[in-house]
Write a structure and sequence with these properties.
Chain A is of the alpha/beta class. Helix content of chain A is about 25%, strand content about 25%. Chain B has two domains: about 5-50, no CATH class; about 55-375, Cytochrome-c3 Hydrogenase, chain B (Orthogonal Bundle), CATH 1.10.645.10. By secondary structure, chain B is α+β, with helices and mostly antiparallel strands. Classes of the chains: A alpha/beta, B alpha+beta.
Chain lengths: ~150, ~375
C-alpha cells in the first residue's frame, strides 16, 4: 500500500476533503527524499499528474514545489509539498518519471529553481537568451519599445 | 544550433542530418518545431521545441481577479474553448460552494458535448489532410460550421467562448436552440456513418495508420497519458465517468476503447466518442428542466477560502486540470493549468524514435495537439 510506503518517508500526511478540494491526501516532505517518494509512487502504479511551484519567498522564504500523483480508475490524488530554500537545488525525478523532465524545465524557466540530476535543464517556454524568470512575484515586465506612452500599441 | 538552416550536416557522422519540422510546418497545426535527427528517412531522435505561442496565461491569472480571468481559459485551448470555460467556472464554484441551477447544468452539458464534437471534427479533417486526403476536410468543416452556428446563436462567439459564469451561464436558451440541437443530432448520426465509410475503410488511410505510432505500454504511467490516446490503449479512463463533475453522472454513455494504441485505434476511439457525445446531448435535450439559468445568489466578490484546489475535466484531448492556490483574496495566488497536450507532446522523443519521417506527420496528427495549449 502506498500509505505504508509513504509513512516511512514523509513528515506528515493530512487527509483533505476530496469533495471540496479535488485531492485526497496532502503530504509535506523534505526535498532530498523526493526520489524515494517518486520511486514509491512508481512501484504502486501511480502516475505523475503535474509538478508546479509557488513563489513563497515573502511568506516562508522558500519556493514550494508541488508534486501531484494520481492513479487511473478510481482517483486517488496525493499531493507532495516540498519547500526549498532559494538558491538551492532540488533533486530531479526525471529519471524515474520522464514526465517530470518537462515540468522541471518549466519550473526552472519560470522560477529559476534548479534540479540536480536533470538530463538537460534548459528553458522550455521562454527563448534561450531570455533574462528573467517570469512567474516570480517580483518580476518586472521590461518596457516595450514598440508601445507608446499612453499604452496604445 | 542555427535554426535558420533547414538542413545541416552533423560533423561527426556525414550520413545523418538534422531537419527542422516547423515552426511553420502545416502538420504541427500551430507554431511548434520538432528537431528531427534523420538517417535517410528514418528518425533517429526527435526533440520538440515549444514556446513560440507562450502567452503567460498563468502570469495573467496572478495579475487579475477571478472574474477578469473568465475569458482566458477558452483561449488556452481554442478548439475546446467551451469545455475550458465551463471547467474554470466549475473549479471556482466548487471552491466557493456556489450552487448552480439545474437548467444551467443541462445547458452546460449540451454546449460541452457539441464543442467536443466540433473539436473532434476539426481534428478529423486536419488529420486526414495531413495524410493527403482533402475530401474529408471539406465534409468535417461543413458539419463543424453547423455546430458553430448553433453555439453562435446563444453565446455570440464561434471559437473562444465566454459563456459560462460563476453560478450558471450568461444567457438563457430558447426552443429554437433546442430544435436546432435535436435536428443536428439526427442529422449527425447519419453523417457519422458516411464518415466511417469515407475514412475507416480507405486502404491508403489504413496503410498509413495501422501499426504506426504505437505508444509502448510503459509510457502510459511514466508520461501520464490521458484522453483518447489512453483509451486507444485499452484503458477505459474518462474523467466524466471516474470522477463525474457537473451532472455527468446522470447520463448514460459508454467509454469507447481500443487496444492497439496506434494511430488507427485513436481514430476509431474519437469516431465512437462523437457518437457518445450525441447520446449525451439527446438525453440532455429531452430532460431539459425550466427555471433559472444563473443562480440568484452569487457572491459579489469571488474569494475562494484560503487553500489549494484541484479540478479536472475531460477535454477533447485528455485530462485538463486547474490547480488554484488561493490566499483568500480576490486574486489567485497561483493558478496552474495542467494541459493534456503538454504531456502528450513530451512523449514524442520516445514514440517517434525509429519511425519514418512520413509517420511523424501521422503521429503528430493522431494525438491531436493544440499548440496554444502546450505553450499556454
Amino acid at each position: 500500500m502506498i500509505a505504508d510506503k509513504l509513512s516511512l518517508l514523509v513528515l506528515d500526511a493530512t487527509e483533505v476533503k476530496y469533495d471540496a478540494r479535488g485531492f485526497h491526501v496532502q503530504h509535506t516532505a523534505s526535498p532530498n527524499i523526493l526520489p524515494q517518494i517518486a520511486d514509491a509512487f512508481l512501484s504502486e502504479n501511480f502516475h505523475l499528474e503535474m509538478i508546479t511551484c509557488q513563489d513563497r519567498r515573502e511568506n516562508d522564504n522558500a519556493f514550494r514545489l508541488i508534486y501531484q500523483f494520481n492513479q487511473y480508475g478510481t482517483p486517488q490524488r496525493h499531493v507532495i509539498h516540498a519547500d526549498i530554500v532559494p538558491d538551492t537545488a532540488a533533486p530531479s525525478i526525471a529519471t524515474i518519471f520522464p514526465a517530470a523532465d518537462w515540468y522541471e524545465r518549466e519550473i526552472f524557466d519560470m522560477y529559476g529553481v534548479t534540479f540536480d540530476g536533470h538530463p538537460d535543464l534548459k528553458r522550455i517556454l521562454m527563448e534561450e537568451d531570455y533574462f528573467g524568470h517570469p512567474l516570480l512575484k517580483d518580476f518586472v515586465d521590461p518596457p516595450n519599445p514598440y508601445r507608446s506612452e499612453d499604452g496604445a500599441s | 544550433m542555427n535554426s535558420r538552416f533547414e538542413v545541416e550536416q552533423d560533423p561527426k557522422n556525414r550520413d545523418t542530418y538534422y531537419l527542422n519540422m516547423g515552426p511553420q510546418h502545416p502538420s504541427t497545426h500551430g507554431v511548434m518545431r520538432i528537431k528531427l535527427h534523420l538517417d535517410g528517412e528514418r528518425i533517429i531522435s526527435a526533440e520538440p521545441i515549444i514556446g513560440y505561442g507562450h502567452r503567460a496565461h498563468e502570469k495573467m491569472a496572478e495579475n487579475r481577479d477571478y472574474i477578469q480571468f473568465l475569458p482566458n481559459p477558452s483561449r488556452v485551448d481554442y478548439l475546446g474553448g467551451m469545455i475550458y470555460n465551463v471547467g474554470y467556472c466549475q473549479a471556482v464554484e466548487r471552491a466557493m460552494d456556489i450552487e448552480v441551477p439545474e437548467r444551467a447544468e443541462y445547458i452546460r452539458i449540451i454546449c460541452n458535448e457539441l464543442n467536443r464534437i466540433s473539436s473532434h471534427l476539426l481534428w478529423l479533417g486536419t488529420f486526414l489532410m495531413d495524410l493527403g486526403a482533402f475530401t474529408p476536410f471539406l465534409y468535417a468543416f461543413d458539419d463543424r460550421e453547423k455546430i458553430l452556428d448553433i453555439l453562435d446563436r446563444i453565446t455570440g462567439s464561434r471559437l473562444t467562448y465566454c459563456y459560462a459564469r460563476f453560478g450558471g451561464v450568461i444567457l438563457d436558451i430558447d426552443d429554437i436552440f433546442l430544435d436546432n440541437v435535436s435536428n443536428f443530432c439526427t442529422y449527425f448520426v447519419e453523417r457519422l456513418k458516411e464518415y466511417e465509410k469515407l475514412v475507416i475503410g480507405n486502404v491508403i488511410f489504413r496503410e498509413r495508420t495501422i501499426g504506426v505510432g504505437i505508444f509502448a505500454p510503459d509510457l502510459v504511467q511514466k508520461y501520464a497519458i490521458t484522453g483518447p490516446c489512453l483509451r486507444a490503449m485499452g484503458y477505459a479512463h474518462d474523467v466524466r465517468k471516474d470522477e463525474p463533475y457537473g451532472i455527468y453522472d446522470r447520463f448514460d454513455f459508454d467509454v469507447p476503447t481500443q487496444t492497439e494504441g496506434d494511430c488507427f485505434a485513436r481514430t476509431l476511439v474519437r469516431m465512437e466518442e462523437m457518437r457518445q457525445c450525441i447520446r449525451i446531448v439527446e438525453q440532455a435535450v429531452s430532460d431539459m428542466p425550466g427555471g433559472l439559468f444563473l443562480a440568484a445568489r452569487v457572491p459579489r466578490r469571488i474569494r475562494p477560502p484560503e487553500g489549494d484546489y484541484y479540478f479536472c475535466v475531460e477535454s477533447p484531448r485528455g485530462n485538463f486540470g486547474m490547480y488554484i492556490a488561493s490566499d483568500g483574496s480576490d486574486i489567485p495566488f497561483r493558478l496552474k493549468l495542467r494541459t493534456p497536450s503538454f504531456s502528450h507532446i513530451s512523449t514524442m522523443p520516445a514514440v517517434m524514435a525509429g519511425t519514418m519521417l512520413a509517420d511523424a506527420v501521422a503521429i503528430l496528427g493522431s494525438i491531436d495537439i493544440v499548440v496554444p495549449e502546450i505553450d499556454r
